[in-house]
Automatic annotation (TrEMBL):
UniProt name for this protein: STAS domain-containing protein
Source species: Trametes pubescens (White-rot fungus)
Organism lineage string: Eukaryota, Fungi, Dikarya, Basidiomycota, Agaricomycotina
Gene Ontology terms: biological process: sulfate import across plasma membrane
Highest rank taxon of the organism: Eukaryota
Coiled coil spans: none
Chain spans, region Disordered: 565-592, 729-754
STAS domain span: 531-656
UniProt-listed NCBIfam families: sulP
Keywords, in A-Z order: Membrane, Transmembrane, Transmembrane helix, Transport
Length: 754
């Protein structure tokens, strides 16, 4: 019975091509055991991670309380006028901005991993909501009110983002680089500022949600008919900037009073709105027309408290009508928040959990629809204010929500007289800071000119078309650049530089043979490898889009610089391959060939390779076959710095690393269309010498010992060891060649016809 089982196993191994004594490699069982070592503990950690507040609320103390109270109240004073202003951008009544602000700051603190971020209405998301409302109304005129459309967007996008967070897919956000985000934000800020200028000047009569350049042109056309609102708007905007500039200068002049001037600057939004509201009341209270209009545009009645608490009304027909707009709304919702939270995490020395942040804003928006809120995400200006105010924990959001509640239930009568131009001034002042500074733009150019082009494209497309086109342009351009970089990685043929340090210490390093401007000193002399040895570094994972570059580089280099194994001068044109043009007229093909060194070994530096796929292994096999066919002999392939057991497993499957002669290995590891007619073999005269040479090398006493497994002697711990092993093999080959010459009468008697 046992013998039958063994025979069955042996037969199965022969069918799938597994060696009888395979080289030990990492297995699926090893991976599965590392993943499922403690499933219950992993599930418990997952549940605990959903509520980060549990990790710090038990350690809360009075020292933290002071910072949270100050930051919470400070942000609350700012968020009230800002949220009402942003609601106007979204073409919603102002109270909906307060609803979003309350839910955002209250719910977020329960799930947050960032102490600085303030959730609520933001300009870019508000503009996106206004465009969605306009789009739906164009296709379905007056079928749904604007606030229902806005809350539906919040509900759907909230659950989408929540699902992304729960499934731990937050890494998808990493595919959008910082320049693309900055370009999109800059273009959006310019778009919003242009859209608010008419409100600042009291201009009406044209679409402020058209392309930015059209809004700017229309603003210039309507300047002669500017209304009285401009007096309030321009005065408010000038005051906001004047207070900030004066406070900044005084803080530099009197460093001891820096914190005092900071809070004076913080309260400028509330101060300007209060002054403009009083001025509006004094100017408008006796100038109401018979039709009920006032000389300037004011908010008028703002409903007190929460007027729309209840389950959200989700109409499937409405969801279908806005389906095409939901992707960009979801991207903005998560992209802006993750970018802001990461930025403040870096500034203040902590790391956020992107997946948990997505859960936080997903839950915030889903619950916010119960209160009638529209989509909320992280605000850059309020987060910066919260950070500078000395916030200690996310609990500061509770104090901010208290301020919003007080405004909703106690200050709505005063909101009646707030001039709309004053709110436009607040929006312009807040959003203008999102425009990238010249220093930041120049930094993009210095680091990566290609990413600067992406930034510029995002800005221009956003300004001249729409925000949706801008964000899609930045994302698609970034992904295209990523694919190009993966498909066209850098690779270098390396040479040696010997460094002489103090006390006669000598160290070898390998650098590109071709001079790289700014990398090496011009006086440094790079010594090429010994004749017959090639050292090549591939600076990307070896994957199917790029592995052909490695094959082309090595094969072309071998055919150009290494000796051909056969004397082609004795081969007639009729016996040459169809793609061999033959020698040039009057040119001694064999003489030039004999001047080149005999190829012995190729050393591949895999320190920059983190993954290898099946196509890559097949391409390496093809490379080995092509160079051995050119050299007409066995060629050693050494690999340096393989730190992944899965790369080692893949290369061993391709017949690399063990030192086995290539004549015993298949020419294909995973053929698309299997060819069952035969296999590639080397000439018989080379087989014995190949095996003999391999045996001599593997028995070298100076191998790396226990650092690298003995069953894969052609895998090396570092590049220096790999090159030294190739050099030892080269010297062994030279000794064998000299011994063969002593035995043979002359080279002319050597058979070169096969």
């Amino acid at each position: 019975m046992v013998s039958l089982v063994e025979k069955a196993k042996s037969f199965g191994k022969r069918v799938i091509g597994q060696p009888e004594q395979p080289v030990p490699v990492v297995s699926i069982k090893d991976w599965a055991s590392s993943v499922t070592s403690s499933p219950s503990r992993g599930a418990l950690r997952y549940v605990e991670s959903l509520f980060p507040i549990v990790g710090w609320i038990t350690r809360y103390n009075l020292g933290w309380l002071y910072g949270d109270v100050v930051a919470g109240l400070t942000v609350g004073i700012v968020v009230v006028p800002q949220s009402m202003s942003y609601a106007q951008i979204a073409t919603l009544p102002t109270q909906y901005g307060l609803y979003s602000a309350f839910v955002g700051v209250l719910i977020y603190c329960l799930f947050a991993t960032s102490k600085d971020v303030s959730i609520g209405p933001v300009a870019v998301m508000s503009l996106t909501v206004s465009r969605i409302i306009a789009t739906v109304n164009e296709s379905h005129p007056d079928q749904w009110p604007g606030h229902q459309i806005a809350t539906t967007v919040a509900f759907i996008c909230g659950f989408i983002v929540l699902g992304i967070g729960l499934l731990r897919l937050g890494w998808l956000v990493e595919f959008i680089p910082a320049p693309a985000v900055s370009g999109f934000m800059t273009g959006s800020a310019i778009n919003i500022v242009a859209g608010q200028v008419p409100g600042l000047l009291g201009e009406t009569g044209f679409d402020t949600r058209a392309s930015t350049y059209k809004v700017i042109i229309n603003c210039l056309k309507f300047l002669p008919v500017t209304k009285m609102d401009a007096a309030f708007g321009i005065t408010g905007l000038f005051s906001l900037y004047a207070i900030r500039i004066i406070c900044d200068q005084l803080a530099k002049r009197y460093p001891r009073r820096q914190r005092l001037f900071f809070f004076i600057s913080v309260f400028r939004n509330a101060f300007v709105i209060v002054v403009l509201t009083i001025a509006s009341w004094l100017y408008c209270r006796h100038r109401k027309t018979a039709s009920g209009k006032y000389p300037i545009k004011i908010l008028q009645t703002v409903p007190r408290g929460f007027q729309h608490v209840g389950p959200p009304v989700i109409d499937p027909e409405l969801v279908a009508a806005m389906a095409g707009e939901l992707p960009v709304a979801t991207i903005i919702l998560l992209l802006e928040h993750i970018a802001i939270s990461k930025s403040f995490g870096r500034l203040n020395g902590y790391k956020i959990n992107p997946n948990q942040e997505l859960i936080a804003i997903g839950v915030t928006n889903a619950i916010g629809t119960v209160f009638g809120a529209y989509p909320a995400t992280g605000s850059f200006s309020r987060s910066a204010l919260k950070s500078k105010s000395g916030v200690r924990t996310p609990a500061a959001g509770i104090l901010t929500s208290v301020v919003v509640i007080v405004a909703l239930y106690g200050l709505t009568p005063a909101f009646f007289w707030i001039p709309s131009a004053g709110l436009s001034a607040v929006v312009i002042h807040a959003v203008a800071d999102l425009v990238a500074s010249p220093r930041q733009v120049f930094a993009f150019w210095r680091v990566s000119p290609l990413e600067f082009i992406i930034w510029l494209a995002a800005v221009l497309v956003t300004v001249f078309t729409t925000i949706e086109n801008g964000i899609y342009t930045s994302i698609c351009a970034s992904l295209a650049l990523l694919l190009v970089r993966i498909a066209h990685p850098r690779g270098y043929f390396l040479g040696r530089v010997t460094l002489h340090a103090e006390k006669s210490a000598v160290r070898e390093v390998f650098v590109p043979l071709t001079p790289r401007p700014g990398v090496l000193h011009p006086a440094v002399r790079v010594e090429p490898p010994p004749p017959g040895v090639i050292v090549y570094r591939f600076e990307e994972s070896a994957l199917y889009p790029n592995i052909s570059l490695l094959n082309d580089a090595l094969v072309d280099h071998v055919k150009t610089n290494m000796r051909r194994g056969r004397d082609m001068s004795k081969v007639s044109m009729s016996d040459r391959p169809w793609n061999d043009p033959g020698p040039r007229p009057g040119h001694d093909e064999n003489a030039d060939n004999l001047e080149k060194p005999v190829l012995h070994a190729i050393v591949l530096d895999f320190s920059g390779v983190s993954h290898v796929d099946t196509t890559a292994v097949q391409a390496l096999i093809d490379t080995r076959n092509e160079v051995e066919r050119w050299a007409d002999k066995h060629v050693e392939f050494h690999f340096a710095t393989i730190l992944s057991p899965w790369i080692r497993r893949a290369l061993v499957a391709g017949g690399f690393g063990t030192g086995a002669p290539s004549s015993s290995l298949p020419a294909e590891i995973a053929p698309v269309v299997p060819y069952r007619g035969g296999r590639r073999t080397l000439p018989e005269k080379n087989k014995a010498s190949d095996i003999e040479a391999v045996e001599e090398i593997t028995e070298d006493p100076e191998t790396e010992g226990p650092i690298v497994p003995q069953d894969t002697p052609f895998f090396h711990f570092d590049l220096i060891s790999a090159v030294h092993a190739a050099e030892r093999g080269l010297s062994t080959q030279d000794r064998s060649a000299q011994s063969s010459l002593r035995k043979k009468p002359s080279l002319s008697q050597t058979d070169v016809s096969d």
